[in-house]
Predict the structure.
Amino acid sequence: MNVVPLRPGLATTATPVHFVGRLTASLPDSEFEVEDEHGESWRCRRAAGCLLRPEAGDTVLLSGPDSARVYLIAVLEQVDSSVSRLDAAGALSIESPAGLRLSSGAELQMRAAQWNLQADSGQCRVDDMRFTGQALDATVGRLRLVGQVFESVADRVVQMARRVLRVVDETEQVRVGHLDCEAGGTARMHARHTVVTASDLVKVDATQIHMG
């Protein structure tokens, strides 16, 4: 039985029920208690089409074919209109053959145990973004970053590539504790002026050394 009149002795009739009442309490098993204009209390379930979650004090609309099958079909007025919550008992899917837009004048929050996003193409524009996570794995066919300042801070950096080309128009500076450069083939350094200095020792070792 979906609705139980709480006043003793009120019999179930086949007369259709349709009235506006005030929600007084949320009960266990997803039921609600609603008071009509005569002070009678009705216990009912929310209709599947009423996605707005009712709260105590809201003005609601109850309807049904008889007093045994009455449902809360709509929330007419909220006691607190500053907060509205869409609530579904199971999975909720929003589908549109055309465009779908979510807009918020203040803050937009998304929270889930798992988030899946799939699209043929996408654009993301954020003026100021901060990302915090435990791990990030990305697989792309082509990656391009364009910016004015690029900074990275890490405890360990590993890079592997078949070919690397780096072009610096002005000055490149490297400050390291120890520098170890090893080439399997040829190592070449060329400049208009080359200066190699050391505080204690400069060592050049090879089978042949050509200078001049």
Summary: The CA atoms of residues 142 and 179 lie 31 Å apart.
